[in-house]
Design a protein that fits this description.
25% of the residues lie in helices and 16% in strands. By secondary structure, it is an alpha/beta fold. It has a three-stranded parallel sheet, with no helix packed on it. The protein is globular and about 40 Å long.
């Protein structure tokens, strides 16, 4: 089974090489925007593969700046990680209760860690 790490923009709160190194394992694939390719080249040996997403690729996500809680839970249920941590709800986008809505819609076998408490 392959683990996947998805990086959206290369902002400090989305892209931290130190934190990525902590969670990358022997079977990890990194998915990044194409423009980040040079930024991760020194980290290439940590990953089974690095997949780039080109400008113009279009994916439906719902929400403003981020997925809404139910769409995010749907994606997590498809990917099936061991742990999911919702972010930005009640701060950048969404409302404070979106973290719980997300958790309520994620399958029981996936652990949800809510880090932001209001």
């Amino acid at each position: 089974m392959t683990d996947n790490i998805f990086i959206t923009p290369d902002h400090y709160d989305h892209f931290s090489p130190e934190d990525i190194a902590k969670v990358a394992g022997d079977n990890t694939t990194l998915v990044i925007p194409e423009k980040m390719q040079n930024k991760v080249s020194s980290m290439a040996d940590m990953f089974v593969s690095i997949i780039t997403v080109k400008p113009g690729d279009r994916k439906e996500a719902g929400g403003t700046y981020t997925m809404d809680a139910k769409k995010a839970a749907e994606l997590v249920n498809t990917i099936q990680p061991e742990v999911a941590i919702p972010v930005h709800y009640g701060t950048v986008a969404g409302s404070p209760n979106n973290g719980q809505i997300f958790a309520d819609n994620v399958k029981d076998k996936i652990k949800v860690e809510i880090k932001i408490h209001f």
